[in-house]
Design brief:
The protein is mainly beta. The protein contains one helix and eleven strands. A hairpin with a 3-residue loop joins strand 1 and strand 2.
């Protein structure tokens, strides 16, 4: 079975096995994956296959901070709990805007709400533990926020070179 990681805007994450979510019909409401605090929402879902033991989770916040954390640092729990801290959410960092699974060779795109795009190698982002604030990923102008972080998909042409 694959592992599912759910990330909240409040900096929490829960990791559980996919077999904990039972099959349901299209009209069903589903099951609780992560217990959210007031004003929080789920911002990312990562599906980690059993063969994926290497790699890191890149977490980014609205004020341009983020970090890579080894996937093995996220303990398995039952679904429906509050989860564990993935990154500290405070005035410096802002809320979590996204998370994704990255490898050493991957590149990521950082996109601001002001239209700035930066492409960087994941290996250039510090790899630190879960309960930390992270490092600056992108310099932001006054009133600007990080809107999204995505792993860059390589095209077939790039793979052939």
């Amino acid at each position: 079975y694959c592992d599912i990681l759910l990330f909240s805007s409040g900096g929490k994450v829960v990791r559980f096995e996919e077999n904990e979510v039972r099959a349901m019909g299209r009209a069903a409401r589903g099951v609780r994956g992560l217990l959210l605090g007031d004003g929080q929402s789920v911002v990312s879902l990562i599906i980690a296959a059993p063969e994926v033991t290497a790699g890191a989770v890149l977490t980014a916040t609205a004020n341009g901070y983020g970090k890579r954390t080894p996937l093995t640092d996220y303990p398995k729990h039952k679904r429906g709990g509050q989860g564990v801290i993935s990154i500290q959410v405070n005035d410096r960092n802002g809320v979590v805007i996204g998370a994704g699974l990255v490898g050493e060779q991957d590149e990521v795109m950082l996109i601001t709400d002001g239209g700035t795009l930066i492409r960087t190698r994941a290996s250039e982002i510090s790899e630190v533990g879960r309960n930390t604030q992270g490092v600056r990923l992108i310099g932001l102008e006054e009133g600007e926020h990080l809107a999204a972080v995505e792993k860059v998909a390589e095209s077939d042409e790039e793979l052939r070179q």
